[in-house]
């Protein structure tokens, strides 16, 4: 079952029964009839494959499945903001927000454009806001639409985690962990963590989304990825995120094998050659600035800004460029003799590598196990 297939009112009814302990009281809370609530709970139990309640003389007693699901539902309902919102409306609007046009959303979902138009229009009425403006052949989300799209994505993420919690309760190993991988983590840390985790949990899928911090922070905040691995940022810049340090990485100066500086260099020599670096604002670029502040004098020329290790590797091999990277990121090329480590970089040049999650994220047991595997892999890198 997918999280966008729930009946939102049935979820609200389930949460109300847990709170009230009674179908009749819950029915009044969610503005449904008692038979509608009873039928809704029966349908929900059939969808989930678990019993949620036990009928007793004094009312309805919540079983373990309901107690596990209830906190997730509470968060999802708060994010959705209205019991009038339907799962079809959520699916349509999230698809539209992602695709940028009704035609692209229809192609992605297999739902006809008129149905998407109707669902998004009904959603706007349900929440009392205009959600989209037409812009040529596409659409632009209004400010209210942008905020709602994020809330709905987070709500779906919370329901997805609720389904994972129930699967764990039933002894079913499965699901998918979605990881945002920043450049440093891709060479060694993440592969080792995935291999370790999959040896213990072979039926859990891993989806790796590659990108820089700026590219992954949005999907993380929206609940489209579960966690990020890579260089941590200044805490003041990510107040809504939680950062957990793993180890300190000390970058080194890299060049092609046979580079004129391979046998030795000084500060002036480092300034004579062009550099390839990630964009301004990244931790590595700031470390490079710190390194030259330590050396004194002007900054060298940076004719190429690039965050792709693959691209940097090819450029280094083919020219007299210099770069600042972790040894692990180009370990194979160094071992093969294509590149040379001409560092280490002078000064207190290091960056903290760690895990980043949403501040209010509550991981499932399997997500906790995956983070533990990352911690073990990080420990091996520093031992």
From TrEMBL:
Pfam families: HTH_1, LysR_substrate. Keywords: DNA-binding, Transcription, Transcription regulation. The keyword Amino-acid biosynthesis does not apply. Residues 6-63, 85-142 form the HTH lysR-type domain. The keyword Cell cycle does not apply. Transmembrane segments: none annotated. Belongs to the LysR transcriptional regulatory family. This is LysR substrate-binding domain-containing protein. It comes from Sphingobium cyanobacteriorum.
């Amino acid at each position: 079952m997918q999280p966008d297939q729930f009946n939102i009112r049935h979820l609200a009814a389930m949460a109300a029964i847990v709170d009230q302990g009674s179908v009749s009281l819950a029915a009044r809370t969610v503005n449904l009839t008692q038979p509608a609530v009873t039928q809704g709970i029966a349908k929900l139990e059939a969808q989930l494959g678990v019993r949620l309640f036990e009928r007793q003389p004094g009312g309805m007693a919540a079983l373990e499945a309901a107690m596990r699901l209830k906190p997730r539902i509470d968060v999802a309902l708060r994010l959705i903001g209205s019991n009038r919102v339907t799962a079809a409306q959520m699916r349509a609007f999230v698809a539209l927000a992602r695709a940028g046009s009704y035609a692209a959303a229809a192609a992605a979902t297999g739902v006809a454009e008129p149905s998407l138009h109707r669902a998004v229009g009904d959603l706007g009425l349900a929440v009392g806001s205009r959600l989209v403006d037409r812009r040529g052949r596409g659409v632009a989300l209004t400010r209210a639409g942008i905020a709602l799209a994020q809330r709905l994505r987070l709500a779906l993420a919370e329901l997805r985690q609720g389904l994972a919690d129930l699967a764990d309760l039933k002894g079913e190993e499965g699901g998918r962990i979605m990881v945002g991988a920043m450049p440093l983590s891709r060479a060694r840390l993440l592969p080792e963590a995935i291999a370790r985790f999959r040896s213990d949990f072979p039926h859990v899928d891993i989806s790796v989304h590659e990108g820089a911090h700026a590219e992954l922070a949005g999907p993380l905040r929206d609940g489209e990825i579960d966690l990020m691995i890579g260089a941590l940022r200044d805490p003041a810049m990510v107040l809504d995120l939680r950062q957990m340090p793993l180890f300190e990485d000390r970058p080194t100066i890299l060049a092609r094998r046979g580079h004129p500086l391979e046998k030795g260099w000084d500060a002036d020599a480092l300034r004579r050659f062009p550099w390839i670096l990630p964009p301004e604002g990244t931790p590595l670029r700031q470390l490079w600035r710190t390194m030259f502040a330590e050396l004194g004098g002007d900054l060298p020329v940076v004719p190429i800004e690039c965050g792709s290790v693959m691209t940097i590797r090819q450029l280094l091999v083919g020219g007299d460029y210099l770069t600042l990277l972790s040894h692990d990121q180009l370990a194979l090329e160094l071992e093969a003799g294509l590149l040379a480590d001409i560092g280490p970089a002078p000064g207190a040049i290091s960056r903290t590598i760690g895990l980043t999650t949403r501040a209010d994220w509550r991981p499932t047991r399997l997500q906790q196990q995956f983070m533990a595997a990352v911690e073990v892999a990080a420990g091996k890198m520093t031992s």
